[in-house]
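Wait, can you check?
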Amino acid sequence: MKPLASILALGLLLSFSSCFIGGDEGPIGPQGPRGPQGADGLDGEEAYVFEYENVSFTGPDYQVFLPYSDDFEALISDVTLVYFLWDVDTDGNEIWRALPQTVITENGLLQYNFDWTTLDVKLFLDADYELDLLTAMDTDNWFVRLVVVPGQFWSGGRKAHPSYEEVKERYGIEDSKISGNVMKRRSL
C-alpha cells in the first residue's frame, strides 16, 4: 500500500507544482517594437598578421617562441594559425603551408608543430628519431606568418586548417613579397 500512496503523492505534487511555474509573471502583453538592425557579423572582424624572418630551430629543445607585437592584445577567443613559406614556384609565387606539417626524411618522420597563447606562439619540432640528426634544410632560416583570427571564423563547420590563401581572401590580407633567398624545402 505504501508504494501506491507514494506514487499518488508524487502525482499530486507534480500537478500542483505545474500551477506555480511562472505564476507571478501575470499575463503576456503585446510584442514590443522591432529593435535596430544588428551588425552582419563581419564588422570589427579583423585578422592580424605577424611575419618573422630567419626563424631557426636549435638544440637541445628545437623550439622557438615568437611573441606578438607589444601593441597587439589577443583575445582568449582568438585562434592563431601558423604558416611556413615552404617554397617559391618558377613564377615567383610563394607557397605557404599551414602547420602542423609532417615530412618524411631519410631518418624518419619529422613534424613541425605549434602551440599558442594570448602572448606568443611556440614552434617546435617532433620526430620519431633523434632531432640532432636534422639538417640545416630542416631547421634553419624559415619565414613564418602568424595569422590571428577571431574565433567566429572557426565556427560553422569550417576546415580545421584553412589554407593561407583562404585566410587572405576572407580577411582581405594584402601580401608583401618576401625578399631574399628561400631554401627549397622537401616536398611531401
User: Anything to note?
Assistant: The mean pLDDT is 78.
